[in-house]
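Q: I have 110 residues here and want to know how they pack in 3D. Can you give me a structure?
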Amino acid sequence: MGNMENYERDFEEPLLNETSGYYQRKAAMWIEQDSCPDYMLKSEEAIRLEEERVETYLHASTKVRRTERCFACLFVGCCLAQPCAPNRMGNRTAPVCCPWSSCLIVLILM
């Protein structure tokens, strides 16, 4: 059998990095295009699909790390990537960094 260190170093880590980049781009696009509820629905669905992909195609040890990366990109990264960027109405004076921060806080508290 193969060595898990090789799997993690040669396959999993590059895959996780690509996954992060993909969902960072998706988050930026969805924030611009969608309402907060639509963004949340798309993000939740993306995480659900990623979990299914892991269960179908990848080693079980990848599930937690991949889900954490997706969650960080979709629910945390959107606020940290471009702090105090203008929202869709051009408002830079809002006390939050992301137009969907209040929805994110609700999700985290759930």
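Q: Anything worth noting?
A: Helices lie at 4-33, 36-57, 62-80, 101-109. The first helix runs from residue 4 to 33.
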